[in-house]
Design a protein that fits this description.
By secondary structure, the protein is of the alpha/beta class. The chain has 12 helices and 9 strands. The protein has helices at residues 2-42, 80-89, 93-113, 126-129, 134-145, 158-163, 165-178, 194-198, 209-212, 219-234, 247-255, 272-280, and strands spanning 47-55, 61-72, 76-78, 119-123, 152-157, 181-187, 204-207, 238-241, 260-261. The chain binds ligand C2E and magnesium ion (3 copies).
Protein backbone atom coordinates (compact mmCIF):
# COMPACT_ATOMS: atom_id res chain seq x y z
CA UNK A 1 0.00 0.00 0.00
CA UNK A 2 2.89 2.34 0.84
CA UNK A 3 4.47 1.57 -2.49
CA UNK A 4 1.23 2.34 -4.34
CA UNK A 5 0.94 5.60 -2.44
CA UNK A 6 4.45 6.74 -3.25
CA UNK A 7 3.98 5.78 -6.91
CA UNK A 8 0.80 7.86 -6.96
CA UNK A 9 2.62 10.77 -5.33
CA UNK A 10 5.48 10.54 -7.77
CA UNK A 11 3.03 10.50 -10.69
CA UNK A 12 1.15 13.49 -9.35
CA UNK A 13 4.27 15.53 -8.80
CA UNK A 14 5.64 14.72 -12.23
CA UNK A 15 2.29 15.76 -13.73
CA UNK A 16 2.58 19.06 -11.90
CA UNK A 17 6.14 19.49 -13.14
CA UNK A 18 5.06 18.73 -16.68
CA UNK A 19 2.21 21.21 -16.39
CA UNK A 20 4.51 23.86 -14.94
CA UNK A 21 6.98 23.17 -17.72
CA UNK A 22 4.35 23.63 -20.40
CA UNK A 23 3.07 26.79 -18.76
CA UNK A 24 6.64 28.08 -18.59
CA UNK A 25 7.17 27.35 -22.29
CA UNK A 26 3.91 29.06 -23.20
CA UNK A 27 4.77 32.11 -21.13
CA UNK A 28 8.30 32.27 -22.49
CA UNK A 29 7.03 31.97 -26.05
CA UNK A 30 4.44 34.66 -25.50
CA UNK A 31 7.04 36.93 -23.96
CA UNK A 32 9.39 36.30 -26.88
CA UNK A 33 6.62 37.05 -29.37
CA UNK A 34 6.00 40.27 -27.46
CA UNK A 35 9.70 41.17 -27.67
CA UNK A 36 10.14 40.35 -31.34
CA UNK A 37 6.83 41.54 -32.79
CA UNK A 38 7.45 45.31 -32.81
CA UNK A 39 10.59 44.87 -34.92
CA UNK A 40 8.86 42.32 -37.18
CA UNK A 41 6.09 44.82 -37.88
CA UNK A 42 8.47 47.77 -38.27
CA UNK A 43 10.74 45.87 -40.67
CA UNK A 44 7.82 44.46 -42.64
CA UNK A 45 8.73 40.85 -41.80
CA UNK A 46 5.09 39.95 -41.61
CA UNK A 47 3.81 39.06 -45.02
CA UNK A 48 0.49 37.98 -46.44
CA UNK A 49 -0.92 34.83 -47.90
CA UNK A 50 -4.19 34.97 -49.82
CA UNK A 51 -6.89 32.33 -49.66
CA UNK A 52 -9.37 32.17 -52.54
CA UNK A 53 -13.10 32.55 -51.91
CA UNK A 54 -15.02 30.54 -54.48
CA UNK A 55 -18.50 30.92 -55.97
CA UNK A 56 -20.01 27.49 -55.21
CA UNK A 57 -22.10 27.59 -58.40
CA UNK A 58 -19.59 28.74 -61.01
CA UNK A 59 -16.66 27.27 -59.02
CA UNK A 60 -14.64 30.38 -59.88
CA UNK A 61 -12.61 32.52 -57.50
CA UNK A 62 -14.33 35.79 -56.72
CA UNK A 63 -11.99 37.22 -54.13
CA UNK A 64 -9.20 36.39 -51.72
CA UNK A 65 -8.78 36.80 -47.97
CA UNK A 66 -5.47 38.25 -46.79
CA UNK A 67 -4.01 36.24 -43.89
CA UNK A 68 -0.94 37.41 -41.99
CA UNK A 69 2.12 35.15 -41.87
CA UNK A 70 5.26 35.45 -39.77
CA UNK A 71 8.24 33.15 -39.48
CA UNK A 72 10.83 34.27 -36.96
CA UNK A 73 14.37 32.80 -37.19
CA UNK A 74 14.28 31.83 -33.50
CA UNK A 75 10.61 31.05 -32.92
CA UNK A 76 9.84 29.48 -36.28
CA UNK A 77 6.40 30.02 -37.79
CA UNK A 78 4.12 31.92 -35.43
CA UNK A 79 0.40 31.45 -36.01
CA UNK A 80 -1.59 34.64 -36.66
CA UNK A 81 -4.08 34.00 -33.86
CA UNK A 82 -1.02 33.82 -31.56
CA UNK A 83 0.67 37.05 -32.64
CA UNK A 84 -2.58 38.96 -33.20
CA UNK A 85 -3.49 38.26 -29.55
CA UNK A 86 -0.08 39.53 -28.43
CA UNK A 87 -0.39 42.58 -30.69
CA UNK A 88 -3.78 43.33 -29.15
CA UNK A 89 -2.44 42.96 -25.61
CA UNK A 90 0.68 45.08 -26.29
CA UNK A 91 -0.90 47.97 -28.15
CA UNK A 92 0.65 46.94 -31.48
CA UNK A 93 -2.51 45.94 -33.30
CA UNK A 94 -2.95 49.31 -34.98
CA UNK A 95 0.50 49.04 -36.57
CA UNK A 96 -0.15 45.43 -37.60
CA UNK A 97 -3.50 46.30 -39.18
CA UNK A 98 -1.91 49.25 -41.02
CA UNK A 99 0.79 46.97 -42.43
CA UNK A 100 -1.73 44.34 -43.55
CA UNK A 101 -4.06 46.96 -45.07
CA UNK A 102 -1.22 48.66 -46.91
CA UNK A 103 0.10 45.38 -48.33
CA UNK A 104 -3.30 43.94 -49.28
CA UNK A 105 -4.62 47.14 -50.88
CA UNK A 106 -1.38 47.60 -52.85
CA UNK A 107 -1.69 44.00 -54.06
CA UNK A 108 -5.38 44.35 -55.00
CA UNK A 109 -4.54 47.54 -56.92
CA UNK A 110 -1.84 45.57 -58.82
CA UNK A 111 -4.42 42.90 -59.70
CA UNK A 112 -6.89 45.60 -60.79
CA UNK A 113 -4.26 47.18 -63.07
CA UNK A 114 -3.67 43.74 -64.57
CA UNK A 115 -7.35 43.73 -65.55
CA UNK A 116 -8.65 41.47 -62.79
CA UNK A 117 -11.83 42.01 -60.79
CA UNK A 118 -10.39 40.24 -57.76
CA UNK A 119 -11.41 41.76 -54.44
CA UNK A 120 -9.47 41.38 -51.22
CA UNK A 121 -10.63 40.89 -47.65
CA UNK A 122 -8.66 42.13 -44.64
CA UNK A 123 -9.27 41.05 -41.04
CA UNK A 124 -9.55 43.83 -38.53
CA UNK A 125 -9.47 43.60 -34.77
CA UNK A 126 -11.87 44.76 -32.11
CA UNK A 127 -9.27 47.38 -31.15
CA UNK A 128 -9.30 48.82 -34.66
CA UNK A 129 -13.00 49.60 -34.23
CA UNK A 130 -12.05 51.78 -31.27
CA UNK A 131 -9.44 53.76 -33.22
CA UNK A 132 -10.35 57.35 -33.94
CA UNK A 133 -8.80 57.48 -37.37
CA UNK A 134 -9.76 54.06 -38.77
CA UNK A 135 -12.18 55.25 -41.45
CA UNK A 136 -9.83 58.03 -42.56
CA UNK A 137 -6.87 55.66 -42.71
CA UNK A 138 -8.77 53.24 -44.92
CA UNK A 139 -9.94 56.02 -47.24
CA UNK A 140 -6.37 57.32 -47.51
CA UNK A 141 -4.89 53.90 -48.36
CA UNK A 142 -7.54 53.27 -51.04
CA UNK A 143 -7.03 56.67 -52.64
CA UNK A 144 -3.23 56.44 -52.55
CA UNK A 145 -3.28 53.08 -54.34
CA UNK A 146 -6.13 54.02 -56.63
CA UNK A 147 -8.25 51.06 -55.55
CA UNK A 148 -12.02 51.23 -55.87
CA UNK A 149 -13.56 50.93 -52.40
CA UNK A 150 -15.83 48.03 -53.38
CA UNK A 151 -12.77 45.86 -54.07
CA UNK A 152 -11.99 45.87 -50.34
CA UNK A 153 -13.89 43.91 -47.71
CA UNK A 154 -13.18 44.27 -44.00
CA UNK A 155 -13.79 41.19 -41.87
CA UNK A 156 -14.81 41.74 -38.28
CA UNK A 157 -15.61 38.82 -35.99
CA UNK A 158 -19.08 38.64 -34.52
CA UNK A 159 -17.46 38.66 -31.07
CA UNK A 160 -15.60 41.89 -31.85
CA UNK A 161 -18.76 43.52 -33.18
CA UNK A 162 -20.68 42.57 -30.05
CA UNK A 163 -18.04 43.76 -27.58
CA UNK A 164 -19.38 47.31 -28.09
CA UNK A 165 -22.42 46.95 -30.34
CA UNK A 166 -23.34 50.65 -30.54
CA UNK A 167 -19.80 51.75 -31.35
CA UNK A 168 -19.37 48.94 -33.91
CA UNK A 169 -22.62 49.93 -35.57
CA UNK A 170 -21.47 53.53 -36.03
CA UNK A 171 -18.05 52.54 -37.39
CA UNK A 172 -19.62 50.03 -39.77
CA UNK A 173 -22.06 52.65 -41.07
CA UNK A 174 -19.15 55.02 -41.75
CA UNK A 175 -17.21 52.25 -43.52
CA UNK A 176 -20.22 51.38 -45.67
CA UNK A 177 -20.51 55.06 -46.68
CA UNK A 178 -16.94 54.79 -47.88
CA UNK A 179 -18.07 51.91 -50.10
CA UNK A 180 -16.06 49.03 -48.63
CA UNK A 181 -17.76 45.67 -48.01
CA UNK A 182 -18.20 44.40 -44.47
CA UNK A 183 -18.16 40.74 -43.50
CA UNK A 184 -19.11 39.38 -40.10
CA UNK A 185 -16.45 36.74 -39.49
CA UNK A 186 -16.88 33.52 -37.49
CA UNK A 187 -20.62 34.10 -37.58
CA UNK A 188 -22.59 31.91 -35.20
CA UNK A 189 -19.96 31.95 -32.44
CA UNK A 190 -20.69 35.46 -31.12
CA UNK A 191 -23.71 36.74 -29.34
CA UNK A 192 -25.63 39.01 -31.65
CA UNK A 193 -29.31 39.33 -30.94
CA UNK A 194 -31.95 39.31 -33.64
CA UNK A 195 -32.74 42.96 -33.01
CA UNK A 196 -29.07 43.90 -33.46
CA UNK A 197 -28.89 41.71 -36.52
CA UNK A 198 -31.91 43.46 -38.05
CA UNK A 199 -29.97 46.76 -38.25
CA UNK A 200 -26.54 45.27 -38.93
CA UNK A 201 -24.84 47.33 -41.66
CA UNK A 202 -22.88 44.37 -43.08
CA UNK A 203 -22.75 42.92 -46.59
CA UNK A 204 -21.64 39.36 -45.77
CA UNK A 205 -21.83 36.63 -43.18
CA UNK A 206 -19.01 34.14 -42.88
CA UNK A 207 -20.32 30.93 -41.33
CA UNK A 208 -17.81 29.75 -38.74
CA UNK A 209 -15.71 26.71 -39.59
CA UNK A 210 -16.98 24.85 -36.51
CA UNK A 211 -20.42 24.43 -38.17
CA UNK A 212 -18.97 23.52 -41.55
CA UNK A 213 -16.46 20.83 -40.72
CA UNK A 214 -19.07 18.62 -39.03
CA UNK A 215 -21.86 19.40 -41.49
CA UNK A 216 -21.97 15.86 -42.90
CA UNK A 217 -22.15 14.26 -39.45
CA UNK A 218 -25.59 15.32 -38.35
CA UNK A 219 -28.68 17.41 -38.60
CA UNK A 220 -27.75 19.99 -35.90
CA UNK A 221 -25.11 21.91 -37.85
CA UNK A 222 -27.25 21.72 -40.98
CA UNK A 223 -30.12 23.37 -39.11
CA UNK A 224 -27.78 26.15 -37.97
CA UNK A 225 -26.45 26.75 -41.48
CA UNK A 226 -30.00 26.76 -42.89
CA UNK A 227 -31.03 29.32 -40.26
CA UNK A 228 -28.07 31.54 -41.19
CA UNK A 229 -28.97 31.27 -44.90
CA UNK A 230 -32.56 32.30 -44.11
CA UNK A 231 -31.45 35.23 -41.96
CA UNK A 232 -29.07 36.40 -44.68
CA UNK A 233 -31.70 36.14 -47.40
CA UNK A 234 -34.03 38.44 -45.47
CA UNK A 235 -31.35 41.13 -45.46
CA UNK A 236 -29.74 40.55 -48.84
CA UNK A 237 -26.51 39.44 -47.21
CA UNK A 238 -24.06 37.20 -49.00
CA UNK A 239 -23.18 33.97 -47.16
CA UNK A 240 -19.67 32.53 -47.20
CA UNK A 241 -18.89 29.17 -45.59
CA UNK A 242 -15.39 28.83 -44.09
CA UNK A 243 -13.42 25.65 -43.68
CA UNK A 244 -14.70 23.46 -46.54
CA UNK A 245 -12.41 20.45 -46.58
CA UNK A 246 -14.11 18.01 -48.95
CA UNK A 247 -16.26 17.75 -52.06
CA UNK A 248 -19.31 16.41 -50.18
CA UNK A 249 -19.44 19.43 -47.87
CA UNK A 250 -18.93 21.77 -50.86
CA UNK A 251 -21.91 20.19 -52.68
CA UNK A 252 -24.14 20.09 -49.60
CA UNK A 253 -23.52 23.78 -48.83
CA UNK A 254 -24.36 24.72 -52.40
CA UNK A 255 -27.59 22.70 -52.21
CA UNK A 256 -28.42 24.47 -48.96
CA UNK A 257 -28.26 27.85 -50.69
CA UNK A 258 -24.82 29.04 -49.57
CA UNK A 259 -23.33 31.07 -52.43
CA UNK A 260 -19.62 31.22 -51.53
CA UNK A 261 -17.06 29.10 -49.79
CA UNK A 262 -13.50 28.99 -48.63
CA UNK A 263 -11.46 26.03 -47.52
CA UNK A 264 -8.55 23.67 -47.94
CA UNK A 265 -10.60 21.56 -50.38
CA UNK A 266 -10.50 24.39 -52.92
CA UNK A 267 -7.25 26.11 -51.94
CA UNK A 268 -5.00 26.83 -49.01
CA UNK A 269 -3.80 30.36 -48.32
CA UNK A 270 -1.00 31.07 -50.85
CA UNK A 271 1.54 33.76 -51.79
CA UNK A 272 0.38 36.50 -54.18
CA UNK A 273 2.51 35.01 -56.98
CA UNK A 274 0.44 31.80 -56.86
CA UNK A 275 -2.74 33.86 -57.13
CA UNK A 276 -1.21 35.48 -60.24
CA UNK A 277 -0.95 32.02 -61.77
CA UNK A 278 -4.64 31.34 -61.04
CA UNK A 279 -5.56 34.64 -62.70
CA UNK A 280 -3.93 33.49 -65.92
CA UNK A 281 -5.93 30.23 -65.81
CA UNK A 282 -9.33 31.96 -65.75
CA UNK A 283 -9.75 31.84 -61.96
CA UNK A 284 -10.53 28.14 -61.87
CA UNK A 285 -8.85 26.15 -59.13
CA UNK A 286 -6.95 22.98 -59.95
CA UNK A 287 -8.81 21.09 -57.18
CA UNK A 288 -12.12 21.87 -58.86
CA UNK A 289 -11.12 21.57 -62.48
CA UNK A 290 -13.10 18.99 -64.42
CA UNK A 291 -15.53 18.49 -61.58
CA UNK A 292 -18.10 21.04 -62.75
CA UNK A 293 -21.66 19.87 -63.29
P1 LIG B 1 -10.21 33.85 -39.95
O1 LIG B 1 -10.26 35.27 -40.36
O2 LIG B 1 -11.49 33.19 -39.63
O3 LIG B 1 -9.44 33.13 -41.15
C1 LIG B 1 -9.69 31.82 -41.57
C2 LIG B 1 -8.72 30.85 -40.97
O4 LIG B 1 -9.14 29.54 -41.30
C3 LIG B 1 -7.30 30.96 -41.53
O5 LIG B 1 -6.40 30.58 -40.50
C4 LIG B 1 -7.29 29.90 -42.63
O6 LIG B 1 -6.00 29.44 -42.94
C5 LIG B 1 -8.11 28.84 -41.97
N1 LIG B 1 -8.74 27.94 -42.93
C6 LIG B 1 -9.20 28.21 -44.16
N2 LIG B 1 -9.75 27.13 -44.73
C7 LIG B 1 -9.62 26.12 -43.84
C8 LIG B 1 -9.98 24.71 -43.86
O7 LIG B 1 -10.55 24.17 -44.81
N3 LIG B 1 -9.70 23.99 -42.74
C9 LIG B 1 -9.08 24.55 -41.66
N4 LIG B 1 -8.83 23.75 -40.62
N5 LIG B 1 -8.72 25.85 -41.62
C10 LIG B 1 -9.00 26.62 -42.70
P2 LIG B 1 -5.11 31.45 -40.12
O8 LIG B 1 -4.49 32.05 -41.34
O9 LIG B 1 -4.28 30.63 -39.21
O10 LIG B 1 -5.75 32.65 -39.31
C11 LIG B 1 -6.39 32.44 -38.09
C12 LIG B 1 -7.07 33.68 -37.61
O11 LIG B 1 -6.10 34.70 -37.31
C13 LIG B 1 -7.98 34.33 -38.66
O12 LIG B 1 -9.24 33.65 -38.68
C14 LIG B 1 -8.07 35.74 -38.15
O13 LIG B 1 -9.01 35.83 -37.09
C15 LIG B 1 -6.68 35.94 -37.58
N6 LIG B 1 -5.87 36.71 -38.56
C16 LIG B 1 -5.15 36.24 -39.61
N7 LIG B 1 -4.55 37.26 -40.27
C17 LIG B 1 -4.93 38.40 -39.62
C18 LIG B 1 -4.66 39.81 -39.83
O14 LIG B 1 -3.97 40.22 -40.76
N8 LIG B 1 -5.22 40.68 -38.93
C19 LIG B 1 -6.03 40.25 -37.91
N9 LIG B 1 -6.56 41.16 -37.07
N10 LIG B 1 -6.31 38.95 -37.70
C20 LIG B 1 -5.77 38.04 -38.55
MG1 LIG C 1 -11.38 36.28 -41.67
MG1 LIG D 1 -13.38 33.28 -39.97
MG1 LIG E 1 -11.68 32.19 -37.43
Amino acid sequence: ADLALSVARARASSAVERYTGELQTTLTRRAMIGDLLPEAIRAGLIHLHYQPVVNLHTEQITMVEALARWTDPELGPVRPDEFVAVAEANGLIGDLTDLVLETAVAQAARWARAGSLLGVAVNISVHDLEREGLVGTIREVLVRHGLQADRLVLEITETAVMSDPARSHDVMVALRRLGVGLAIDDFGTGHSSLSYFRDLPATKLKVDRSFVHTLLDGEDDRRIVRAIVDLARGKDLVVVAEGIEDRETFDLLREMGVQYGQGFFMARPMPAADVDVLLTTGMHLPALRGLQG
